[in-house]
Amino acid sequence: MILKIRKDYKNYIETEKKLKKNSVDAYVRDLESFNDYINSLSIPSINEINNTHIIRYLLNLQRDGKSTSTISRHLASIRCLFEYLLNKSIIKEDPTLNLRPPRKEKKSPIILTEDEVNKLLDLPDISTQKGSRDKALLEVLYASGLRVSEINSLNIEDIDLKQGTIKLYQEDSFREVPMGRVALDSLSNYLKNYRKDSLKDEPLFINYSGERLTRQGLWKIIKGYAKDLSLKKSITPQVLRNSFAVHLLRNGADIKTVQAILGHSDVASTQVYTFLAEDTNLREVYNNTHPRA
Questions:
Q1: CA count, 13 A, side-chain hemisphere, 95
Q2: Where in the chain is the domain with CATH 1.10.150?
Q3: Which of 93, 96, 82, 97 is nearest to 12 (CA)?
Q4: pTM here?
Q5: Class of domain 114-289 as given by CATH
Q6: Which of 73, 133, 195, 241 is catalytic?
Q7: CATH 2.30.29, domain 2-87, yes or no
Q8: Among this protein's residues, is 286 annotated catalytic?
Q9: Which CB contacts under 8 angstroms, 24+ apart, belong to 279-282?
Q10: Using one digit for the tens of pLDDT, what is the confidence trace for 87-128?
């Protein structure tokens, strides 16, 4: 039934809605799925589809184990479909009016205790090149709360050992992140003993081939050390970022300081970690609250 307008609908979401290719493909797949469901109900025409049919379809997706975000996308694609049908005067009323997507479940971020972090960061053997690099990498991750993409993009020149900061450049934005003594000592050891002949514009963290460490490489390093801890928690770069933020806040940092260090454009993104507190000096707060400063 619905698939008869598939071609025109696809053209509509491409040209008028200006959706990206991935979204277009997803919406078309959702259209086909919804069409199969409607056909199974033997509904005589598109005009007979009501909000009860749509709600039951979404409940079926839920029973099939679809995630909240997937169900929300299905509703968005169905809403877009009926918007198109209404604009083309194929239907008289939009059955998706007043329908709301399911609320996303707010999962608490996985956090390591300070003791667990200390045990993890003490695992690398700094007498070897790999261990020295891994020690510096893990310390910087926990000392700065950097994203994977940010730490992988660092060059040697982005590290200021005297000022104790990391400079981050992203398109037209710039932010400077403070680091504590332990991270600086680990970086200094790595650079002095194993990268002394490297140029300043070379990648900070490299693999065995001397090339920039990849996202997969970083994950592999963390997973390798995490196995030695035998924790039930899954340890990822994001877990270290979460732990960084929570440990600062538990030790008295205000949320705006943590927001600035994490690079969140909206404080709401940081509020998952704690409540809003008044602003203060970035470096002073960092030195007073980070466990390894």
A1: 17
A2: 2-87
A3: 82
A4: 0.61
A5: mainly alpha
A6: 241
A7: no
A8: yes
A9: 279/254, 280/254, 282/178, 282/257
A10: 988 888 899 988 887 766 566 778 899 999 999 999 999 999
